[in-house]
Structure formats: C-alpha cells, structure tokens
Write a structure and sequence with these properties.
Pfam families: Aldedh. This is Aldehyde dehydrogenase family protein. Keywords: Oxidoreductase. It comes from Streptomyces thermospinosisporus. By secondary structure, the chain is of the alpha/beta class. The protein folds into 2 domains: 8-258 and 460-483, Aldehyde Dehydrogenase, Chain A, domain 1; 263-450, Aldehyde Dehydrogenase, Chain A, domain 2. Helices cover 40% and strands 21% of the residues. The protein has helices at 41-59, 63-79, 81-92, 96-113, 161-174, 189-201, 216-224, 237-250, 272-279, 281-284, 301-317, 336-352, 384-387, 403-411, 426-435, 467-473; strands at 8-10, 13-15, 21-25, 32-37, 121-129, 138-148, 151-155, 178-182, 208-210, 230-234, 253-257, 263-266, 296-300, 355-358, 374-377, 394-400, 418-422, 440-443, 461-462, 475-483. The strands form 5 sheets. It has a 7-stranded mixed sheet with strand order 14-15-16-13-12-17-18, with helices on both faces. Helix 15 links the parallel strand 17 and strand 18 (440-443). Helix 1 (41-59) runs parallel beside helix 7 (216-224), helix 2 (63-79) packs antiparallel against helix 4 (96-113) and helix 4 runs parallel beside helix 5 (161-174). The longest helix has 19 residues, at 41-59. The chain is globular.
C-alpha cells in the first residue's frame, strides 16, 4: 500500500517533516507499506506547543460536546474498518481476524466507550469544625472535582497501533486534555489514519497532534517538553525507566504500561484442555508480541509431563505463514532484528539447559520475519529465558511441587503485570490469586474484563488504565470547600 509520503499532524495542519521519510516494512512480505515522516526535535516541540495552546479552549468545552466528537470518531473508524484493518495488517503482520477485531475493532470500541459522559464531581459529607484559632465553629461542605491534567504525551507500542493509541487518546480527550501522540516507528501510519478520523469528527486544531520518527530524539523531545504535563507510555521496562527519570525531574504525571513475564500456575486438578488453550495464545496472538501473554508456565509435578506434551502438540499444529491467508494462525514478528532476538533467546535456553520440545526454528518461507512457536521444558526460574521478556512465540515451563512453592516462583520476577491460575478448586485459585504480586490475575481464563483496572506491579508499570481508571489516570483531583 505505497502512496504519497505521510505528513506530520501538528496544530490541525498536515506538514512536511524536516527529516524526510523512511520506509515502513510489511513483516510478512518485507515489502514497503508506505513512507512515514521523520520529525525533527523542533517539530516535536511545536506539536507540544500546539497542544498547550489548544488546551484552554478544549478543556472548557462541555463534556457532552467532547463525547459527541468521540462518538463520531468511533463511527468513522468503524465505517472504514476494512481499509484500516488492511493497513494495520500490512504494518504489523497481524492475522486478518486480529487486525479487524482486536486492532481496529477495539479502537472503535474504545472511542465509543469514552463517548459515555462520566460524572466528574463527587459530594463529600459535610464536616463540623469546632471553634478554635482559625475561627468560630462551622459546617464545611466539599466537592472532589476531576480536572484535566493538561497536555498528555501518548507514546504507543508497535504491537497494536490502533487499540493502544485509542486507549490513550480517547480517555485523555474525554477528560478535557489535549494530546501529542508519538507512535512506534515500526507502524505509525495507522495512527495517522486515526488522527484523520478525529479531525473529520470535529476535533479542533491542536487538540490532537501526531509526530513520528525512527530517531529517539523525537520521543525524547516530546517527553522533555515543558508543555507536556503527563506521559502515558506503553513499551519496554528499560525505556519506561528512562522516561520516568525525565518525568520525575519535572514532576510530570506518569502512566506506564511496561513489560511482563506472565506466570501461568497450572495445578494438578486443572482442566488441561482449557489451560493449554489459554497458554497457547502466546504462540498465536500477535505471535507472542504481547505483554499479557502467559509465557512462564509453572506446572505442578503431577500434571507437568502431560502439560508439556499437550503444549508441544498444540504448538506444532499451528499454521505459520502469510497472515492474509484464512488458515494462518501464527504470523510474523515485527522485524528481522526482532526475529533474531527471539531466535537468540531460544538458543540461550538450550545453552542454559532447557529442552526445546517444539519449534524455535525459522520456517521454510521465502520472505517474512517468521519464527516457529517454541516450547522450552526442563526450565528453572533462574534461567534468563524464564526471567526476561522475550516478546515472541516462546513459552517456558518450570515444575513445582506445592502451592507455597508455586506462589514463591511466580512472585520471583522483575515483572508483575498479569498472572494466571488454572485449578478446579475455585477456593484455592482465588486464594492463590490474592497472594500473587501482580496487577491482574486470570482465574481459569486469559480473557480480560475491559472495565477492570489494568497495570502492573514492580517493573511492569505505574498507574492503572482502562475503563473509568483511564479517566482517573489522566485527571487531577481538586477539592472545593465552602461554609455550609
């Protein structure tokens, strides 16, 4: 899908990038999808300044007006689901079903969700103050009012350019913030289509700005800009730490959704078919390029061998290839460099003493960045393949004996995003879930409730996202007190 080179979106105008353009590559075919703009630091700063200038008027609009614009944007995205999903597939290598439902479909749903006007004020019970140095006795009433933070920098991940960007932009706009979006360099074109939809829906100039680039300087300029009040970032823990240092120096608000190494605790009494299907999503969904994947399986001894056998059989049955083909389940990873990284981890697992039970090799395909789903057994929790986020279709299996050991192994991690528990003993499953030091726990499921708070402990992030929690994340709470 090559065409005219993409321009930046700054202050309501489409402008030529100072740094020229670079090719966006289809991971499945290695062909050029289009030409993305390379912004300069000055243009990134101009986008932040435009967002600051637009903030006053936008934050003063009625919530119902902002909601109406988001609703129109949802409709426009939904109406163009076909071409938008085609572009998303070309940029990310997602299968057709994933591109349509989980990328563009979820983006439309998120705009629609935040078109619901949420109450922004809460009455606080009156307080009776006795007479004292500050004056006579009185009754004081109070309100807690949610105010927009200001300018929110939205820095998105490459695995889902539509849903991830919409999940940041929609609640920020609903709360009255303005935004500067810095998309991942691998697949920024979809985010520019989102900006077009928002512009067509009636978003005023400067309220939404998009600047892209392969150079780290673009993101660095956005994060460091004095016009930016908050950074919402999805990506690696290493980059998140660097962003947090900059935010800390300037006292900027942060919402960080970082890495994960999800532990899947499978007890002897688990429904193995359900557990295998859930864990198997790591092999297929986004080709394992998802932070919520159950990549670290902790299997109780009584079920260990059967679980390894079934996971191996599951992995080897999955069709790997062109994501446009209806039968494909596993598409490519995002780039040649990332493929080499995933392959290096499989080789490292062998060196550390793990047994590669299935996959890990490069499929015999002429083009594309493919890795066969890999299962590594006989692992220990101190191996690097069990501790570091691989972000690919690789699952490691570690045995355990008793519940206490399983909890200790699960919590022995830098990360704490989402863990999973499979057991027919529901009381035990929930007991274990409460002991896991992680932002979310799936009990006998890998499904998510999209109103439940999302975020991590430890190296998996700061703050909570999704549903009303996303609105709270990009707002400040103001107290208004008066004599009753």
């Amino acid at each position: 899908m090559t065409g005219l080179p993409q321009r930046l979106f700054v202050g309501g105008r489409w402008i030529e990038p100072d740094g020229g353009h670079y090719a966006v590559t289809d991971p499945a075919t290695e062909e050029t999808v289009g030409w993305a703009p390379e912004a300069s630091r000055e243009q990134a700063e101009a986008a932040c300044a435009a967002a600051r200038e637009a903030f006053g008027a936008w934050s003063a609009t009625r919530p119902e007006e902002r909601a109406a614009i988001l609703a129109r944007a949802a409709g426009l995205v939904r109406d163009r689901l076909g071409p938008y999903a085609e572009l998303a597939q070309e940029e990310t290598g997602a299968t057709t079903g994933t591109a349509r439902a989980m990328q563009v479909g979820v983006a439309a749903a998120r705009f629609r969700r935040y078109a619901r006007v949420e109450p922004a004020e809460w009455a606080i019970p009156p307080q009776i103050n006795e007479a004292g140095p500050l004056g006579p006795s009185t009754v004081l009433g109070a309100l807690a009012v949610r105010q927009p933070v200001g300018v929110v920098a939205c820095i998105t991940s490459y695995n889902n350019p539509w849903a991830n960007a919409a999940g940041k932009v929609a609640p920020a706009l609903a709360m009255g913030n303005t935004v500067v979006v810095k998309p991942a360099p691998q697949d920024p074109l979809s985010v520019y289509r989102m900006a077009e939809a928002l512009q067509a829906a009636g978003v005023p100039g400067g309220v939404v700005n998009v600047v892209s680039g392969r150079s780290p300087g673009v993101g660095e300029a956005v994060v460091a800009s004095p016009h930016v009040d908050m950074v919402s970032f999805t990506g690696s823990t290493a980059v998140g730490r660097r962003i947090a240092e900059v935010c800390g120096r300037a006292m900027k608000r942060q919402l960080m959704e970082l890495g994960g190494k999800g532990a899947a605790l499978v007890f002897d009494d688990a429904d193995l078919e359900a557990a295998v299907a859930g864990i198997g999503t790591t092999f297929s969904f986004y080709s394992g390029q998802i932070c919520t994947a159950p990549t670290r399986v902790l299997a109780q001894r009584g079920v260990y061998e059967r679980l390894v056998d079934r996971l191996a059989a599951y992995a080897t049955r999955l069709p790997v290839g062109d994501p446009r083909e209806p039968g494909t389940v596993v598409g490519p990873v995002i780039s040649a460099e990332h493929r080499e990284r995933v392959e290096a981890y499989v080789a490292l697992g062998r060196k550390e003493g793990a047994t590669v039970v299935a996959g890990g090799e490069r499929p015999p395909l002429e083009r594309g960045f493919y890795v066969a789903p890999a299962l590594l057994a006989d692992c220990t929790n101190d191996m690097r393949v069990a501790r570091e986020e691989i972000f690919g279709p690789v699952v490691v299996v570690v045995p355990f004996d008793v519940e206490e050991e399983a909890v200790a192994l699960a919590n022995d991690s830098e990360y704490g995003l989402i863990d999973y528990v499979w057991s027919k003993d529901v009381a035990r499953a929930f007991r274990v879930a409460r002991r896991l030091r992680t932002g979310g726990v799936g009990v006998n499921t890998v499904g998510r409730n999209m109103e439940a708070p999302f975020g991590g402990f430890r190296g998996s992030g700061v703050g909570r996202d999704v549903g009303s929690y996303a609105l709270h994340a990009c707002s400040e709470v103001q107290s208004i007190v008066w004599p009753g």
